[in-house]
Q: What sequence folds into this?
């Protein structure tokens, strides 16, 4: 069978970087689905993009798909034929199958003789399939800010200017109807945007090589590797560490087709500005790559970049080699202007004290119905005071530092530098405070109270910073929930889910036991007093937030790789909010223990026993908090040694159940090592029947099973675990 290489290139004007990246999986999925639907065998499928093109090529594509034979079952024989003559039922069935009545077959089945038809569907021609599908693929791609051009009806991220569609050397007859001018597929691509010449694609399999000869690195992964290696090599030659986060690398990859690394100089005068500010200007605003001195840790409170940043930056250009000096000069000029603005803002801010800026917060509204940013700061101070009492073992100095930091933590929101660079909020406030003589602990807490900004971000290192970070997120949740707003679907404008996740990460990181149920009760009552106009019902507010935290906890466990059934066992529907949120860190400890038990094979035999006990325990009359067998089990009623041995196990388990999370491993070990004894109660030589006619005996045995269920529930709801 002859196999071919298929090539499709969609040539456009300069694409937005995010669309160039996000269109790749869409196009790949469309091609895969089409080939699968038409049973067209193929080899590897490659999909890539650059600023001016989306491309896909398929290796070893079958030119003709195989035929498909389908057997269809028709009406019973006695309905299909009358005296050997086909009835209308048989004729209608034959027509639906595209056959004549003489092609029908009679076969015996378990329900008697039936009519069958063998339908042969011919294989599809890859050429015809692709000609029909290509315009549909292009129309199906989704993205933001699509546009029309000319007088045509087609919409795309940017105007489509050319199309290459080939099977080996054959040009496919594809026309994009509704484009203006009408685009017809050919075998001519285009090279670097600074050249006007076309690139002749003689064979689909030569596509990458022929574009490379025209200066285009069309493979996106190769382009990213080329940029990364060039940056690493340049930084190494300068004994520097490049500040090239993955987001910037991805964007640079989608901004250039022929990467060219260019060095630029930062005027020494500007190195007196904060390193983070310089980096933000370079990375976020200019897509430059700052260079830090190797092996020097950045002090977030330092107002000068002199000890951290080199007076050199890197940029990735799409320019020609001949224009390097011109591009370098232009980049330096733009950066100098940007940094001059930043210097002006810093100087203006330093003419005002942090206390004065804090007072200015009274003029800035936080949210409708929630007062000003100064009001919010005062609520944060109250939250910090409560948290330092609710969390055990917070030292007096840490509590005082957190309280002082809460007083000033929002002062930079009215600074000129944060107005221009909002991503520096918190950081600049901490630097200004430290410059004014505030203690390092207080200034660091102001910097850290925005951490973590996301799942993979750094966490606060100081106790005061962690307390203030908790207060920041709790105040936001309480205030927005008090307004009656909730995150729903993909809509979460205030980042409430991120705030909830942050609270859990902060508690887990410190290993702090914080009773969220008690805390939400105290906080909700205060919010009801603070906002009488919102007509808050404190009980409802606390209940809604406890449900929110339960959902966040489940989500966080899943995000950290916890199997779904184990997450449900420690924090699912059968676990009460009160049990779960009295100590949110407890759920993580238990999930990690269950994962360890599953990995070493000790979980399954235990869960089988507990699940069996739990099914019968629902018939007992004991509540879920009963864990002591002494008062509810009568040893005088025992008739078998298995009952006595099980009672001894329950007594040992009770002692461990009362000793707290640090004894969970011992509790798990005791349950595991006793699984044979517990199983003997059901199936051994000395087993007993639980549901006996004697009601007194039945109740006694059910109570033992209920105690076992309640004791094991301290670790997990075993009924939620998969077998």
A:
């Amino acid at each position: 069978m002859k196999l071919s290489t298929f090539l499709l290139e969609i040539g456009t004007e300069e694409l937005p970087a995010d669309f160039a990246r996000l269109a790749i999986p869409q196009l790949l999925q469309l091609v895969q689905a089409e080939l699968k639907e038409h049973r067209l065998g193929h080899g590897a499928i490659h999909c890539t993009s650059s600023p001016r093109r989306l491309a896909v090529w398929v290796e070893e594509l079958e030119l003709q798909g195989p035929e498909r034979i389908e057997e269809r079952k028709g009406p019973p024989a006695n309905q299909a034929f009358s005296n050997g003559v086909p009835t209308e039922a048989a004729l209608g069935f034959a027509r639906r199958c595209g056959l004549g009545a003489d092609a029908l077959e009679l076969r015996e089945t378990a329900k008697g003789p039936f009519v069958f038809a063998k339908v042969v569907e011919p294989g599809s021609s890859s050429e015809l399939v692709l000609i029909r599908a290509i315009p549909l693929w292009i129309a199906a791609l989704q993205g933001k800010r699509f546009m029309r051009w000319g007088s045509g009806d087609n919409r795309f991220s940017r105007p489509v200017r050319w199309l290459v569609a080939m099977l080996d050397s054959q040009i496919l007859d594809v026309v994009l109807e509704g484009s203006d001018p009408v685009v017809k597929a050919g075998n001519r691509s285009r090279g670097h945007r600074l050249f006007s010449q076309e690139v002749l694609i003689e064979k689909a399999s030569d596509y990458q090589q022929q574009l490379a000869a025209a200066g285009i690195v069309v493979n996106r992964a190769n382009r990213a590797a080329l940029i990364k290696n060039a940056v690493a090599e340049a930084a190494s030659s300068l004994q520097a560490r490049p500040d090239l986060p993955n987001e910037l690398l991805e964007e640079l990859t989608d901004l250039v087709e022929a990467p060219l690394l260019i060095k630029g100089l930062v005027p020494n005068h500007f190195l007196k500005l904060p390193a983070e500010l310089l980096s933000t200007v370079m990375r976020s605003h200019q897509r430059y790559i700052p260079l830090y001195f190797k092996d020097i840790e950045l002090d977030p409170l330092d107002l000068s970049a002199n000890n951290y940043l080199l007076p050199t930056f890197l940029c990735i250009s799409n320019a020609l080699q001949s224009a390097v000096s011109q591009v370098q000069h232009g980049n330096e000029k733009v950066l100098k202007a940007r940094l001059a603005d930043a210097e002006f803002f810093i100087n203006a801010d330093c003419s005002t004290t942090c206390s004065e800026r804090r007072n200015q917060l009274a003029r800035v509204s936080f949210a409708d119905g929630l007062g000003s940013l100064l009001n919010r700061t005062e609520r944060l101070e109250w939250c910090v005071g409560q948290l330092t009492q609710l969390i055990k073992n917070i030292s007096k100095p840490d509590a005082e530092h957190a309280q002082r930091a809460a007083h000033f933590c929002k002062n930079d929101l009215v600074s000129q530098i944060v107005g221009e660079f909002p991503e520096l909020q918190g950081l600049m406030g901490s630097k200004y405070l430290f410059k004014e003589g505030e203690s390092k602990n207080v200034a660091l807490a102001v910097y850290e109270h925005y951490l973590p900004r996301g799942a993979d971000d750094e966490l606060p290192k100081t106790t005061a910073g962690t307390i203030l970070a908790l207060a920041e997120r709790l105040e936001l949740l309480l205030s927005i929930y008090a307004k009656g707003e909730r995150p729903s679907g993909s809509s979460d404008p205030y980042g409430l889910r991120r705030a909830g996740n942050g609270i859990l990460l902060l508690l887990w990181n410190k290993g702090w036991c914080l009773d969220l149920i008690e805390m939400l009760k105290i906080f909700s009552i205060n919010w009801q007093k603070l906002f009488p106009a919102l007509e808050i019902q404190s009980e409802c507010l606390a209940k809604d937030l406890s449900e929110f935290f339960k959902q966040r906890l489940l989500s966080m466990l899943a995000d950290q790789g916890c199997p779904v059934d184990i997450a449900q066992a420690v924090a699912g529907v059968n676990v009460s909010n009160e049990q779960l949120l009295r100590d949110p860190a407890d759920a993580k400890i238990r999930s990690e223990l269950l994962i360890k038990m599953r990995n070493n094979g000790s979980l399954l035999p235990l869960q089988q026993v507990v699940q069996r006990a739990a099914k019968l325990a629902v018939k007992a009359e004991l509540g879920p908090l009963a864990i002591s067998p002494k008062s509810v089990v009568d040893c005088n009623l025992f008739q078998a040694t298995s009952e006595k041995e099980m009672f001894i196990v329950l007594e040992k388990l009770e002692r461990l159940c009362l000793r707290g999370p640090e004894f969970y491993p011992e509790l798990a070990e005791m349950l595991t090592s006793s699984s044979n004894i517990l199983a003997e109660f059901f199936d051994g030589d000395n087993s007993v029947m639980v549901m006996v006619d004697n009601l007194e005996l039945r109740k006694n045995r059910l109570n033992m099973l209920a105690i076992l269920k309640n004791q094991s529930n301290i670790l997990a709801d075993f009924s939620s675990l998969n077998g």
